[in-house]
Amino acid sequence: MSLLHTSNAARGQVWRDIFAAEAPEIEFTELTDAPDLGSVRYLAAWEPSTELIARLPALEVVFSVSAGVDQFDMATLPDHVRVVRMIEPGIAAGMVEYVSMAVLALHRDLIDYGVAQRAARWAPLKLVPAEARRIGVMGLGNLGQAVLRSLAAFGFPLSGWSRSPHSIAGVECHAGEAGLPGFLASTDILICLLPLTEDTRGILDRRTLSQLPRGASLVNVGRGGHLVDHDLLSLLDDGHLGGAVLDVTDPEPLPPDHRFWSHPRILLTPHIASTTSAESGARALIANIRRHVAGAPMDGEVARDRGY
Ligand code: NDP
């Protein structure tokens, strides 16, 4: 039984050692080993090519090396191949840090103070207490819920929005199209932690963002494809939105002449909110392969027709 790994070499070296020490029953291979592709049952990859998939006749499961699976071209995967996203504690820990930083920066007016600093203007703003700053998270999955748990400590009123109804202590939960207007109207800082699918592409557009209260702000840590760039820019320019923290863009890297780089009310980072920990990622993968061998449900299996 073999696993083929095709993402970055540094991760591959860590994974090779952990598989050898902790899962000797699974043969860990990379293309540089010139493996017998006919015996590969599992593939761990970022963007596997159609040509590679066609050379893996025994393939049963494709594991994403990250939390998202939008980079896979599902149409080119044979119907029987199962797709699993990465769920491991390092991804959630990084996301909790990043979103906490972004929310606190927006809550404590760091965008305004950055503008004032560049103008050498000493201009204190009225302090808004956390209890008066409503946080709304789009996507109540593994990461959305982890972020909400950490933000609860500050005392922000919390709400969330998902496809199906959820019940989470301390969080006002909304669901589906019908739940979206009420969710948006009661959100001062909107955090996007949705997967990118046919249903969610372009969801952060003028129609949705203009339903946020005047002065609200956005944290996009989902995917760049969720956001309609020129709608965000015009809502920032006309003052409807107060600021945005963007970790993801479309395309990536963002072209040097894009207005996001220089906009005074945008804080931009190069898709670094969180990343898969090599060590706990390897162990999550081993646990899932063992579940698959035992005929048990795998953690993070994606409904291919739904796209997440
Ligand atoms: P999950 O699959 O665990 O959760 C997805 C959530 O989104 C679910 O609550 C789901 O609803 C909701 N959702 C999906 N489609 C819709 C829809 N059409 N309408 C409303 N809600 C919807 O994903 P994760 O929490 O693990 O990850 C979320 C995303 O975060 C990833 O897909 C990736 O794009 C992004 N990410 C970004 C990183 C970065 O560094 N910037 C790092 C890691 C992830 P329901 O619960 O009803 O199914």
UniProtKB/TrEMBL annotation:
Keywords noted in UniProt: Oxidoreductase
Classification via InterPro entries: D-isomer_2-hydroxyacid_DH, D-isomer_DH_CS1, D-isomer_DH_NAD-bd, NAD(P)-bd_dom_sf
Cited Gene3D superfamilies: NAD(P)-binding Rossmann-like Domain
Domain D-isomer specific 2-hydroxyacid dehydrogenase NAD-binding: 101-273
A GO term from the CC aspect: cytosol
Protein's recorded name: Glyoxylate/hydroxypyruvate reductase A
Cited Pfam families: 2-Hacid_dh_C
Xref: PROSITE patterns: D_2_HYDROXYACID_DH_1
Domain of life the protein comes from: Bacteria
Species name: Sphingomonas tagetis
The keyword Oxidoreductase is assigned to this record: yes
Gene Ontology molecular function, alphabetical: glyoxylate reductase (NADPH) activity; hydroxypyruvate reductase [NAD(P)H] activity; NAD binding
